[in-house]
Amino acid sequence: MPEIKLPFGEALKRSFGFAFNHIETFFKISLLWGIIITGLDAWADFPLLCAAGDESCIAQKGGSLNILVMFFASISITVSYLIYVIKRTEYQKWINIRLEKKDFKYIWAMIKLIFAGMTISLFIGLILGIIGRVLGLGGVRQLGTLFSMISFFFVGMFLSRYALVFPAIALENKEISFETSYKITKGNINAIFWGMVVTSLPMMLSNMLVAGLYFALGPENWLINFLFSFVLIMISLFNEVLKASFLAHIYQYFIYFYNRLQKKDEAV
């Protein structure tokens, strides 16, 4: 099958444009999640807000629960937004919250991919660490850790070829398996991987700026803490929407040309 070349710049432009032009939909599918997470954060004395400046704060009361709820919220919002972008399913109500079977399939696919990436990275890091030790470059543990970190980056790039599986799960398209995604995305590792990185940068920077402003002000007022916590949480959730927008747009692009090539092959 001929390679399908993803237009990197156009994919990013469409992804950002769609997300910001449909900001109302983002609030419809994330507002209730944001309120719930902020409420939990307030109940636990704002561990997520504190962690924005000091990661050790996450050990406070309720920190683990907040992270868990945030994780499920991110999955729910991502799946909902993927469906919205691809199917244009409109959300009529302003309060929407859902967790369905497909969300847990999405999580399971993530776990499999992360586990595969970690296993490969640790194995490569261990082998390179042993080689380095034999050559007298340092301790096995230190070299193994360093090489594992480096290899995890490149393994992550390689695994980006499986990205189409996630929109397929959201759409319940069983035709697109890990194997199929890998085949379709041949030659597009850099475009997909760096696209995911670029779509994460604006919200990461926004999060840092808001967190920096909060700690510069050093507020102790409960209401101000609540508002800053809510803003930071919503920024994090919008980050999931941006990434979902990119995934949805590249999915549409690849599947469109994949289906065309399939029909062409059948006609021959």
Itemize the secondary structure elements and their pairings:
Blueprint: H1 8-21, H2 23-43, H3 47-51, H4 63-87, H5 101-134, H6 140-159, H7 165-170, H8 178-184, H9 189-217, H10 222-267
Helix pairs in contact: 1-9, 1-10, 2-4, 2-10, 4-10, 5-6, 6-9, 9-10
Question: Can you give a write-up of this model?
Answer:
With 268 residues, this protein is an all-alpha fold. It has ten helices and no strands. The chain has helices spanning 8-21, 23-43, 47-51, 63-87, 101-134, 140-159, 165-170, 178-184, 189-217, 222-267. It starts with 7 loop residues before the first helix and ends with a helix.
Any descriptors?
268 residues, 10 helices, mainly alpha
Number-wise, the strands total 0
Order of helices and strands: HHHHHHHHHH
Give the overall average pLDDT.
Answer: 84
Model regions low in confidence, pLDDT < 50 over at least 5 residues: none
Distance from N terminus to C terminus (CA atoms, Å) equals 13 Å
The helix tally amounts to: 10
Instruction: Let me know the largest β-sheet.
Output: none
Strand content: under 5%
The rough form would be described as globular
**Structural class from helices and strands?**
mainly alpha
Radius of gyration: 21 Å
Helix proportion: over 70%
